[in-house]
Design a protein that fits this description.
Elements lengths: L7 E2 L2 E2 H7 L1 H15 L1 H4 L3 H25 L5 H16 L4 H19 L8 H50 L4 H6 L7 E9 L12 H19 L5 E5 L2 E8 L8 H18 L3 E8 L4 H17 L5 E3 L5 H6 L4 H8 L8 H13 L2 H8 L3 H15 L6 H15 L5
Parallel strand pairs: 6-7
Antiparallel strand pairs: 1-2, 3-5, 3-6, 4-5
Helix pairs in contact: 1-4, 2-4, 2-6, 4-5, 4-6, 5-7, 6-7, 9-10, 13-17, 14-15, 14-16, 15-16
Protein name: Transcriptional regulator
Pfam families: GGDEF_2, HTH_30, RsbRD_N
Family: Belongs to the CdaR family.
Amino acid sequence: MTSDKGLRIGGRPLAERLTSGLPSLTRTVLAEIVSRIPEYGLLPAEELSGDITRVIEQNLRSFIDTLRTGSTPTREELGLLRESAARRAEEGIPIDIVLTAYHIGVQVVWASLTPDARPDEVADVLAVNALTLRYLEVVTPAVGAGYLDERQTMFDDERSARHTVLSALLDGEPAEVAAGQAGLRLPPCYVVLAASVGAHPDEVIDGVDPLVAGRRKLRRLRVELERQIRGTVLTSLTPEGGIALLPHETPAGELSTRDWARLERVLADVARTAGAEVVAGAAVAEPAGVPEAAKLAQDVLAVAIGSGRPPGLYRLDDVLLEYQLSRPGPALDRLASRLAPLDGNEELLQTLETFLRRGGRRQTAAALHVHPNTVDYRLRRIADLTGLDPTRLEHVALVSAALAARRTPGRA
């Protein structure tokens, strides 16, 4: 092991030199940290003169011991540094700033030594440099681990508290107490989203772990959703989808067309960031009405998916006909049976759906890449088989309803 007897700077034993100047070094390090790191300058004066000063002194003593003995800090010494890092995590000081403070301390010591180094002490200076790197090699991960352990604990506590609030809201239980314990204020209303999330391309590529790809997709989705929405978003999501409660400051019955347009843009941004298609059913309610809104949002989602709607945000008004037809009953099966003669004839079904969607024979012909006379023939064939003529105004609503009934997931 290296001994300080062989390390001299300015003609004096290194450890003796640093120990005698420890009070001054501590003050210099504190001043330099406050000067170079604005976040530390915002800490209370009593904390700077108390806890922060003690940590600086402890760090310097450990460093001096490393220079004297050649040994890295003990488990006990590292434990003290971990505890200090945990306190900085509690205070919300970013980890990069915490680690910078330790490097500043070493820089101050180095700056106090090198001006006095003599030509015959070059070997000593190089030895100090090597020991400094060894010291930082051990201290940096210890400080980082202490910080991250505390942040993980805080994150788990926060996530648990938010989950308690979410569960209370979805179960229809009073959520004010749980919200207060989580540091949240319940908004006037929540936009309840029931979302279905498609696969990211990475989830289906050979050689890529689909679980990892799915978790990465979910993280991006959550981060973008929380970035776009003011207030605390409560979610119960998996890579395949789930429930999200978006706080809104407008009462439940007063959301405007502009509000809904913004939510549609938000969902589009979320899907783009996640790299996956997202279909979502939405409903609005005050906190006490979240259970009913969640059920409605899930039903709207099921109808939107079952009726082949493209990715996007859907409210009940967007799927009124399909939603009503999804309610089970004898009329639903009877309605769907009106088009039973077309079963197995995908050409006629495709022509019928395209004609109703496009609104004209020429538009339908263009979409299907056939001659308009072919469309006329197919429409006549549909009328002959079903008794419903899609070109007659009085039959259009019934034909549309029958198609919706065929597609509904609620049909037996």
